[in-house]
Amino acid sequence: MGPIAVRLSQFFLLITPFLTGLAFVLVSMIPFSVSGGLFVTPAFALMPIYFWGMYRPDLMPPLAVFGIGLFQDLVTAGPLGLWPAVYLFCYMFLISQRLILLSVMAGRTWAGFTIVMGLAAFFAWTIGSAAYGMVLSPLSLLIQALLSIAIYPLIARVLLFLHTRIQRELG
Fold this sequence. Notes:
By secondary structure, this protein is mainly α. 75% of the residues lie in helices and 4% in strands. The chain contains seven helices and two strands, in the order ααββααααα. It has a two-stranded antiparallel ribbon with strand order 1-2. The longest helix is centred in the C-terminal third of the chain and has 32 residues.
């Protein structure tokens, strides 16, 4: 491979975490039907933010987290600023507690994700209620949180594959 191709390959590897966040926002546009006609989608975009923030925060800086949240606001036509605020709050919590989570919960990232997902659901409910000027029903966010927690281990495997590839290529 020539030097330009090598640099281009390295560039795409470096932005892979951000691109996975954007891709997962698009995946989150596919609703899952839950009984009673309630359509809920797992918080797919939070999963790469959590994963990369935990293992490679250098590849998922706050600006990327903000961009993923803003992209989600734009494609879902939700209140502008809702998801950037939620994701940045969760990201800052994760970064501030990262070493504790890595040492205490070594190998149990699912438990760490459960904590972050709970914070995200609560924060989204709080900001959403304020944005709409009324207390929203927390039921859909609770179902979203439970769905997200349930499928996180599967998504983490995909992200771990990408992480391994980045580690191998970039060192």
